[in-house]
């Protein structure tokens, strides 16, 4: 069966490893790549549930347990009609190296079902979650596999699944992350991916400007309007930037004045998302709504672009449009947010225009904040402790700084940049994440 998303993710990693000096210095790592490209285990199962009309429905459930060399499998559950093995393998593969970059002891995995929550009642979604977890509970655990939420799986669904796990296994353990605050969840977890994305880009801006610039005064284009986009937007505004766009699957909202989006508007959008309503339901606003569009070709002057919706949401032409609009930084809040052709546009521009270039950061580094705080949630559960929001946020800032520094220094070591050229954060992230996983696998006898 064709697996285009997985093949794209694998080729993106392989191409950067081959263009680095990693295989010259360590030729045996080619065998590690071959082994690491195959999941340790794939679990498929049926999910049978009942509608409010009493009709029997069946969906396909999955869990791809990709790599556990660094710790228990860790990665989200996605409920969306597009879910298939190719998408889950791509997400699980990316997750392995993303988790390695956090510096925490987590392996990589991903799961979900081709279930569409849209148009379903709360009772129907609850019934689906219970049925899904009745099977999945046999394959996960605090020291085995710790899923989290993803598209279509909010803290509410996590709660229903956690309750089902607890009843089925007769044990309370930190088996899912993104839990409610009063029963094992971590503060800052909902905000973590968006906040971490902005913290990472802040290091990019400071490095590129020699410490002279920050988000203050920057115009920032963001796609998506879910959890990642909302909290990235709020953090940008807090740091003095202006958010000029948000979007959903039906179209884009573009700011028409210098104020951009306010925290109040973003909170209104968040309320719409909770009720599964489109951005078209937003009332009393002065934004320009462009049906069926993504923001990238419709924003005028921008400094930073943060794709935060879904995979392959920045095309080659859109990449060129962002450069033409003056964007100097692009970082993926979504997984594999840019197509391979778009990445090539950014990387070519970086090489040709040196200090005046756009600088690209891949999702496996830039959006690692979410899973990092999931790892901190696991640590709190193990200790039966709950840390303050300030403690978690400080740890998140430290993890994102270490992640940026790791990508930067690895890029300098394995892909020597030309004079005046920004190091390739794409290559730095791929080499740093892969090396760590491959070394652990070798120590444990997974390859030799």
TrEMBL record:
Alphabetical GO biological process terms: glutamate biosynthetic process
Site (Important for catalysis): residue numbering on this chain: 150
SUPFAM superfamilies: Aminoacid dehydrogenase-like, N-terminal domain (SSF53223), NAD(P)-binding Rossmann-fold domains (SSF51735)
Residues that coordinate or bind substrate: 74, 95, 98, 149, 374
Catalysed reaction equations from the record: L-glutamate + NADP(+) + H2O = 2-oxoglutarate + NH4(+) + NADPH + H(+)
Pfam families xref list: ELFV_dehydrog, ELFV_dehydrog_N
Residues the record marks as active site: 110
Any Gene Ontology CC annotation: cytosol
GO MF annotation, one: glutamate dehydrogenase (NADP+) activity
Positions of the Glutamate/phenylalanine/leucine/valine/L-tryptophan dehydrogenase C-terminal domain: 186-445
Key words of the record: NAD, NADP, Nucleotide-binding, Oxidoreductase
Residues that hold NAD(+) according to the record: 193, 227
Signal peptide: none
Top-level taxon of origin: Eukaryota
Family the entry assigns: Belongs to the Glu/Leu/Phe/Val dehydrogenases family.
Subunit: Homohexamer.
Name by which UniProt lists this protein: Glutamate dehydrogenase
Source organism per UniProt: Massariosphaeria phaeospora
